[in-house]
């Protein structure tokens, strides 16, 4: 049994589906608060599967976490649960502090109490895998080398600052209390079941809806894009073979500017779902005012993960983005289920 936090969100949900796709896999207890970005429809394929137990709740709820650990006796915790949208953190940072910092602290303390009570063999096999982001490292110039695991922390948004704080807590619980932790810092994920506030699903859905495709500033911000299925595979490797107390950067080896990402999506849609008027979706591109403190470039050096654990992504950006666009075209019911009035209000507030 493993316990997943945030397993109804984008990355967590994909990880649960990927994990249980193996008929011999251990069972999963899935703890998720079901905030706006959590969606049980993502897990619909697991309905009736006795290996999947869903618990609705907050990682900051000490009694709930304690009871879940005591009842299910997991041999590992994989901690995805987080508020993760930079734009939302700018408008309302308090929720990010509560979930990403205080929530992680509570989870660590509950895990420490649980771990200390295990017998020696189970204690030796227990793992706490903390899933974090490359944004904790700050911003790079065009000529800077990619982030390694020893790069200084220089977070520039309330979101990245809250994730940096959670990383530091995890590190401290290893060095102070001996809790067997591993941390991974990933680059920008994309793929199926992605809540459409993020760039790639936002562009796909706006394009299909004949709406503007909003691009911050000049669109030259660079991100390293990681297909979510590759991220899930990497986490499995780190959980199974990673060294205790270590950090592993997980990247896609795919640096792209935002404007190039959007133009690629438009080209694929032009092929797979052409506009009725025969024009390109690229005509819908609209440049909007840049957000405050927008980091210019992220780039992940994932060579440590390749060298020590033998992992490398299976998808290129070209193959991954085509799979992603196709998934959104083939799953309109999932999209309709989450594009609510509150989501439309958010878009108007953010991009008007």
Describe this structure in words.
The chain is an alpha/beta fold and 352 residues long. The chain has a domain at 2-194 and 225-252 and 297-315: 3-Layer(aba) Sandwich (Rossmann fold), CATH 3.40.50. The protein is built from 13 helices and 12 strands. The strands form 3 sheets. Strands 3-2-1-4-5-6-10 form a 7-stranded parallel beta sheet, with helices on both faces. The protein has a 3-stranded mixed beta sheet with strand order 7-9-11. The chain is globular.
Count, helices: 13
Structural class designation: alpha/beta
Question: Averaged pLDDT, please?
Answer: 94
Task: Give the number of DSSP strands.
Answer: 12
Query: How is the CATH topology of the domain at 2-194 and 225-252 and 297-315 named?
Result: Rossmann fold
């Amino acid at each position: 049994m493993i316990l997943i936090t945030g397993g109804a969100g984008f990355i967590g949900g994909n990880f649960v589906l990927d994990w249980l796709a193996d008929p011999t896999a251990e069972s999963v207890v899935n703890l998720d608060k079901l905030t706006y970005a959590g969606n049980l429809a993502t897990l619909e394929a697991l309905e009736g599967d006795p290996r999947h137990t869903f618990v609705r709740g907050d990682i900051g709820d000490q009694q709930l976490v304690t009871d879940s650990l005591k009842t299910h006796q997991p041999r590992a915790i994989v901690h995805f649960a987080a508020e993760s949208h930079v734009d939302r953190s700018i408008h309302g940072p308090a929720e990010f502090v509560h979930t990403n910092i205080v929530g992680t602290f509570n989870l660590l303390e509950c895990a420490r109490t649980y771990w200390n009570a295990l017998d020696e063999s189970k204690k030796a096999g227990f793992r706490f895998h903390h899933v974090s982001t490359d944004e904790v490292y700050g911003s790079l110039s065009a000529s800077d080398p990619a982030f390694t695991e020893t790069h200084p922390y220089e977070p520039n948004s309330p979101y990245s600052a809250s994730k940096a704080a959670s990383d530091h807590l995890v590190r401290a619980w290893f060095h102070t209390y001996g809790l067997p932790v591993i941390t991974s810092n990933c680059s920008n994920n994309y793929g199926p079941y992605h809540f459409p506030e993020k760039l790639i699903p936002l562009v796909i859905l706006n394009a299909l809806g004949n709406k503007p495709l909003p691009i911050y500033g000049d669109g030259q911000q660079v991100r390293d894009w990681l297909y979510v299925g590759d991220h899930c595979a990497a986490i499995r490797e780190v959980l199974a073979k990673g060294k205790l107390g270590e950090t592993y950067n997980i990247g896609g080896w795919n640096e792209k500017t935002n404007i190039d990402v959007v133009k690629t999506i438009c080209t694929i849609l032009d092929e797979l779902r052409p506009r009725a008027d025969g024009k390109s979706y690229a005509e819908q591109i609209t440049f909007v005012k840049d957000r405050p403190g927008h980091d210019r470039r992220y780039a992940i050096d994932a060579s440590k993960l390749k060298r020590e654990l033998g992992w490398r992504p299976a998808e290129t950006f070209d193959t991954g983005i085509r799979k992603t666009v196709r998934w959104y075209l083939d799953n309109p019911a999932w999209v309709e289920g989450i594009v609510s009035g509150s989501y439309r209000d958010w878009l108007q507030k953010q991009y008007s």
